[in-house]
Amino acid sequence: MYTFSSKLKTFSFALMIVGLLGVAYGFLSTPNSVEDVKVMLQESHDSHGEVATSHDNVNHGESHETAHSDDTHAEHAFHYLKNKPWSALYVALFFFFMISLATLAFYAIQHASQAGWPVVLFRVMEGITAYLPVGAVLLFVFFVLSSLHMNHLFTWMDADVVAHDELIQNKSGYLNVPFFLLRAAIYIIGWVVYRQYARKLTLAQDKANDNSNYTKLFKSSAAFLVFFLVSESMMSWDWIMSLDPHWFSTLFGWYVFASMIVSAVTTIALISIYLKGKGYLEFVNNSHLHDLAKFMFGFSIFWTYLWFSQFMLIWYANIPEEVTYFASRFSEYKIPFLGMLVLNFAFPLLVLMNSDFKRVNWFIVCTGIIILIGHYVDIFVMIMPATVGDQWFFGISEISSVLLVLGLFIYVVFTALTKAPLLAKGNPFIKESEHFHY
Amino acid sequence: MSSKVIQAMYNDDDVLMDAVKEVRAANHHIEEVYTPFPVHGLDKAMGLKGTRIAITAFMYGCVGFSFAIWMMNYMMIEQWPQDIGGKPSFSFFLNMPAFVPIMFELSVFFAAHLMVITFYMRSRLWPFKKAENPDPRTTDDMFVMEVLVDGNEASLISFLENTGTVEIKVTEK
What we know:
The complex is a heterodimer.
Chain A: H1 6-28, H2 34-51, H3 54-63, H4 67-112, H5 122-129, H6 131-147, H7 159-163, H8 166-171, H9 177-207, H10 212-239, H11 252-277, H12 286-317, H13 320-332, H14 334-352, H15 361-387, H16 396-418, H17 430-434
Chain B: E1 4-10, H1 13-25, E2 30-34, H2 42-46, H3 53-79, H4 92-122, E3 143-148, H5 153-161, E4 167-172
Antiparallel strand pairs in B: 1-3, 1-4, 2-3
């Protein structure tokens, strides 16, 4: 049995407290009115002016020719800055939620395919999926707050916007608040029900004399995967793609899934290595970690493949309503948008290509941390351009939102790990998994 | 090249694996093992060095990648610039996304084909080559281990007989 070390518990609480303070600061420091923003912009112009060359001054002059455009600019900036702490929180909530959701999918795939090797890792995966109900409730609360106009992330929720927008009006049969919340509730209930049912069955299987629980688990996992693949795709349209309600991409669900699954496998590997370092999981050998690293490598390339497939078709066709998505990312988000390709593709490709490196723990840990940062940036670049536009920067709100949710994630996951033995000893494939070697 | 070898035949891969380990533990030299299918873990049990084909695959992939870059630049930018979908046709960099699938495919093509050719050359396999396996049954259901005789032949035979072999043959090689 695993015991949650008090050091790690203190660490998770510290993260949560620091994160909470930072998030609160982020919310309190948003400007109160358009006037404040005007003053702010003026100040930043003045300070620029002091150091700026004449070339810069020309640029400023062009973009703010009249007082009128200054006003609309300030108004836009005001709305973006108001959204900023909410968006930062949303990115962090979604990021950790998607890790646990994709871990659940990975777990269900292992059951449905009756794979032998990962059985020794099942309890680690169950620990990570314990965050699923918590994260799902937080996200749902977030959506309810959005629908109450506490924030303006989802512009299609704003009746004023819809009244002047024929494209959104045409989509309002799908994009309306009650149906949106109903769909979110259906996805969440479906995922959480499978998670709790699977957990109950594996615990029962440990004590059982026959494989009836295992058979039920196999069947429910297969059924869950069917539900998951449809609901995950719709979730990505609802929760992310609808932030840009005019834009659509047919492979968006897959793209989000690729990001999810690679982060999930990485998290499984990192937590397994941590537990092994603490002297638990003595039955996990480096062949298991090798397999996880292979998945990290493979899914990183899979993610790049989907990223590029989405990009190339839109780039080639060059249809105005589609390219706006990439135009804003190339102009305002160039560093995170192209930087994540280095983090998520070039780095794992070169570091994890060698078979021997996949068995070296510190290689997996380093690459894993890079991959997680890269996919955080990926989610960041999916969400931020629609909600904060050109007003983005990586500041206190963003960092403390990550710390807050990370602290909660660590607390929930490691608490769940203490609840059951770390070896799912009742699984019929347990011997195969323990003797797994490559 | 005449050295005496003992060919010990087995009819089960698990028995063979144990035999290989025993023979190696007794410090006899295994020349070669012939099996009808790849036996998982046999290379490690025989103490063979890891394959270096992965390194060649990486290098061939790089060759294919570079070749694709050169080829697309020559064909689409330098030699006969073509206007496809209004994309600027005088810059490799601005057209690069369109060439990525070709770069990818040629990397895979070069890596795969050259790797197969390398493997054949390294294993000395070519068309119309006469089979080297000592017994045609190794293509069916028999596993043959060839052990070099370097000392007392009779004691080696009796040692091998205890490893579960079904047939033993002594030949010159």
